[in-house]
């Protein structure tokens, strides 16, 4: 990238030489699809003497269906994806269709502006399709408290706030939550503006989208739906009849409304499954400022709007969630393209051009290469918001292809490698460590999508908990599917993932932490999954090579290290 080379020239530092071909194919394979290259793929690349050999490799990896898995997992971190509701009860939920929507959208290179609009407000698009409804599962990744005696309205409000905070971090790189109780202390966002943003998410309903049941069960299921709709209609009549006094002062009305919410959670489930989505209300909820963040102490009524410091929403009021979604990716919005390309850059180099990738506010770090950030953001929009084109632009650059060898000559000048005089060395993510072991052992089941899986986990690891979750270990091919499909209970997450810094998924994670602990070494040595894969690797080496110890060692090294 010219901007990074310009910084090096100013300091009279030469960039590192290009990495060797074996390193490049291994680096690219892990970065683009999250799997190691096979010996055959390495040989093919090494023997390809055409001038565009590297570009052909990039193109091949970008069209792999595993690309959507690799980059979909990055997105699921930000979307705080999990397979359970959280809090103490932490019951199971049906979110895997949203996860599969993300994988498919990335594999088909859905433009990022469309990718954004469908997740924020796909249900409000004219003639919204089932897939566009499923995309709004992004909002439904918030926690649900099902404990007895809780105020359902309180936790509904908390879920709405979580959706606003997540959207602010993911698309705008802003810490909006600071303004929930008071005007932001650092960024120009008032408390009133916070609740104007809050109104976009407060106006509509959570909804469970049923999938058609098998023909032999359709009639019985429809009877259940009819009974359910009749019960809801009856509660609506009771609520309407109770509107003699304002809702906030009518205890009986609030009781009825809470009962209606509880009824909604018991909607009949289709035998074919369902998806958690958003549903637009014809009559939006009224939103008021919550004084000191207390939803019981409400102030002025507000309508959906955006902070005055940012470009304003086009068109006449009132504005809704779809207007807000389109505003996020409007060409005049200065934040979304910069925040997005900065996060892509971060995954390739370990640190974003703006190091505080979730805080582009006044307290965030200044960009190390501001002109580069602006240029990438402009290119992103000019290339029709194509994420694959941005990936190709970055990985074909001389900056990305540099050797990652340590450079004593610049260690004191640039210890954090912010000048990018070499490529950074990055440890594999938690699930990719497992995926790589599955791949080299020959056990990997490459099936894309579907319901969560239950690989082996240490026996008795959660017996001390109050409510141990069901975990029937898979014995067929699902046992060996990729780590992103492991069923994720928020209260009892898969131990091998958590040992390697997998996010807890209660809130949005835009950058994973990196730790080095003895538990990681013990996991690789003793976890039943890794023991099984080690045995399979040993058997593969014996079966696929000659009896020569030297040949077996060479083959094992090539399988594991390319």
Could you explain how this protein is built, in words?
By secondary structure, this protein is mainly alpha-helical. It has 22 helices and four strands. A hairpin with a 7-residue loop joins β3 (287-290) and β4 (298-302). α2 (21-32) packs parallel to α4 (53-62), α7 (112-121) runs antiparallel to α14 and α21 packs across α22 (549-561). The two termini are 28 Å apart.
Please tally the β strands and state the result.
Answer: 4
Helical/strand content category: mainly alpha
Summarize model confidence as the mean pLDDT: 92
Strand content: under 5%
Largest sheet: 2 strands, antiparallel
Relevant terms:
single chain; 562 residues; mainly alpha; two-stranded antiparallel sheet; 22 helices; 4 strands; 46% helix
SSE layout:
Layout: H1 2-10, H2 21-32, H3 39-46, H4 53-62, H5 65-78, H6 96-107, H7 112-121, H8 130-135, H9 137-140, H10 152-172, H11 191-202, E1 205-210, H12 215-241, H13 251-265, E2 274-279, E3 287-290, E4 298-302, H14 321-328, H15 336-349, H16 370-382, H17 387-395, H18 430-441, H19 495-499, H20 518-526, H21 528-544, H22 549-561
Antiparallel strand pairs: 1-2, 3-4
Helix pairs in contact: 2-4, 5-6, 7-14, 10-11, 12-13, 15-16, 15-17, 18-21, 20-21, 21-22
